[in-house]
Amino acid sequence: MSMTPRWSRKKPHFPLLAVLLLVFIACSILYNEFSIQQIHESPDHVTRSSQQTPFTYVKPNLPKGASEVLDRFSSCNSTRSYSGKKIRWVDPDAESGRRRSISQESCDIFSGKWVFDNESYPLYKESDCPYMSDQLACHKHGRSDLQYQYWRWQPHNCNLKRWNVTEMWEKLRGKRLMFVGDSLNRGQWISMVCLLQSVIPANKRSMTPNAQLTIFRAEEYNATVEFLWAPLLVESNSDDPVNHRLAERTIRPDSVLKHSSQWEHADILVFNSYLWWRQGPVKLLWSAEENGACEELDGLGAMELAMGAWADWLASKVIPLKKRVFFVTMSPTHLWSREWEPGSEGNCYNQKTPINEESYWGSGSDLPTMRMVDKVLSHLSSKVSVINITQLSEYRKDGHPSIHRKFWETLSPQQLANPASYSDCIHWCLPGVPDVWNELVFHFL
Ligand SMILES: *[C@@H]1O[C@H](CO)[C@@H](O)[C@H](O)[C@H]1NC(C)=O
Ligand SMILES: *[C@@H]1O[C@H](CO)[C@@H](O)[C@H](O)[C@H]1NC(C)=O
Ligand SMILES: *[C@@H]1O[C@H](CO)[C@@H](O)[C@H](O)[C@H]1NC(C)=O
Ligand SMILES: *[C@@H]1O[C@H](CO)[C@@H](O)[C@H](O)[C@H]1NC(C)=O
Ligand SMILES: *[C@@H]1O[C@H](CO)[C@@H](O)[C@H](O)[C@H]1NC(C)=O
């Protein structure tokens, strides 16, 4: 009896339908991504206003129902500048236990170079992954130079553990692995699903599209690989996975409850957050504020508040032996080719090879943000491991889709005449750079 797999009774075309549905939903999700234009036009030069006011501390995570849930229609009744309110989190005594700093191991795995290796890479074929996104399938969308798929990350003084899909599944057996964040994190999730799915027979795996939370399930391992759309970590007006391209960002800086209620039961969590904080000032609607009165703060300051609420959740809820938490650092953009090739005027368009210059760092990776993230994570002791992708991805100006992806908006003749003008230099082709981010997760798991 138990020998008969129950899924064998399913009609054979069901998985195909499910995949089609997923593709459809993925397409609609991917529409309305970052306004590439917006990021092109507004390199963030916001300077933080000096905040001399003594801080008022507020407790994060007011009980549900204490305030209305934000959605994309939420608006502020009035806006004043930031008053200096802060989230109270992590007692400073926890300092003594140093955080699990990956770089403190014998070798800094994040420091190294890219080595051309067309024997072991790519780790999967673009066309073999039924869950591939049209935003990231560069070959399918006309990219003919495929070298971007053939690079291996080689740390300077050690080796990255070799990807082994069976071993990864064994680590995931009976567990929930959840990616939480924005579209860069979703790209990493798709990469992980593509890396993992090949060894699971088509009738023993499934993908459940569920608006904000999407779940890939492998029955024989009783395991899931999930993605939760939460680009700003805390509750925000951009939490709708489809319609979130809004002129203004509004967040509840003290509320992670809405999202943490979905991620709290995951066994392994991979968070990211960055680019959404770089699109102008952010409106803050504190939970205790009853009259819709907002405060306004620059992106970095707002991100620090959100990271504070997130860190507070981790500090109080994560037991390191029971839950693994990773934070993926800033994903670099390659919007200005003059930064690696002085005098040139383009961006990532038509870039076919990585940057060779050791320690190259572009303006897309904001150093003050990195220092703030460093600070927040250092307070969390051993509760979170850093996947520091920034430097290694900085070298990969060749890894972005540029024009080789699906664009959902119609491109004008002027745009078509100037491909760089609509190139996506933010996301990453698959197979490609995010596969290595996942190898890093595998390395530390
Ligand atoms: C790898 O690249 C080299 C040089 O470009 C080429 O000669 C070789 O055939 C390639 N090998 C594979 C397996 O693609
Ligand atoms: C991959 O991992 C499995 C299970 O741990 C092991 O049996 C197998 O030998 C590994 N494969 C390689 C190529 O290392
Ligand atoms: C499957 O995994 C879940 C946790 O994700 C666990 O609660 C459940 O007991 C597992 N089921 C089996 C049959 O192992
Ligand atoms: C905005 O203010 C008006 C009048 O002060 C009040 O009636 C309304 O409820 C407020 N809106 C919100 C969203 O708090
Ligand atoms: C990540 O690496 C860079 C150098 O490549 C370093 O400056 C930064 O502090 C690291 N960030 C974290 C959070 O470990």
From TrEMBL:
Domain Trichome birefringence-like N-terminal: 105-159
Top-level taxonomy: Eukaryota, Viridiplantae, Streptophyta, Embryophyta, Tracheophyta
UniProt similarity note: Belongs to the PC-esterase family. TBL subfamily.
GO CC annotation, single: membrane
Protein name: Protein trichome birefringence-like 35
Keywords: Membrane, Signal-anchor, Transmembrane, Transmembrane helix
Main location (coarse class): membrane
Occurrences of domain Trichome birefringence-like C-terminal (ranges): 161-443
Gene that encodes the chain: LOC111311146
Annotated organism of origin: Durio zibethinus (Durian)
An example Gene Ontology molecular-function term: O-acetyltransferase activity
Coiled coil regions, renumbered to chain: none
Key word Plastid present: no
Keyword Ribosomal protein: no
Domain of life from the UniProt record: Eukaryota
UniProt subcellular location: Membrane
Membrane topology, record value: Single-pass membrane protein
